[in-house]
Amino acid sequence: MKLIRKERPRVTNSITERVSTGCGYLYVTVGFDKDGTLIEVFAALGKAGGCSHCQNEALTRAISLGLKFGVPVEEFIKELIGNECPGKKLWPEDERVLSCADGIGQVLRNHNGCYKA
Q1: Which residue, 106, 114, 111, 112, is CA-closest to 26?
Q2: Are strands 38-45 and 24-32 parallel, antiparallel or unpaired?
Q3: Is 56 buried (19+), middle (13-18) or exposed (0-12) by CB count in 10 A?
Q4: pLDDT tens-digit profile of 10-53?
Q5: Is the pLDDT reported for residue 116 higher than 80?
Q6: Domain definitions of the chain by residue range
Q7: Residue 104 contacts residue 41 (beta carbons within 8 Å)
Q8: Would you report the helix, strand and coil content of the chain in percent, each value rounded to 5?
Q9: Is 14 helix (H, G, I), strand (E, B) or coil?
Q10: What is the pTM of this model?
Q11: Rounded Cα distance, 97 and 20, in Å
Q12: Domain over 13-111 is classified CATH 3.90.1010
């Protein structure tokens, strides 16, 4: 079985959501193609640089690559939601973001299939 990589359109529509994490604000941007299919994700902490920035960039590049090869976004959501950094249970449970990965998973879940071009 040969995997076929979808090319990124030159122009996309996107939504950016600010997520409050134990590491500070995480800005997660999800991009959609003209059909409203989620095709890419970017994440950046409000603080520039550092290991967390590098880890988030690597994670979102891997997610975007998977999406381009047809991996259903639900697979990423299942893997990301629930990942927990130690000592980050600072918010009420319905607002809780356990880690940057958990925050990215929540944003993917919140916006999967919701964009209408």
Answers
A1: 106
A2: antiparallel
A3: buried
A4: 999 999 999 988 888 999 999 999 888 999 999 999 876 788 88
A5: no
A6: 13-111
A7: yes
A8: 35, 20, 40
A9: strand
A10: 0.87
A11: 7
A12: yes
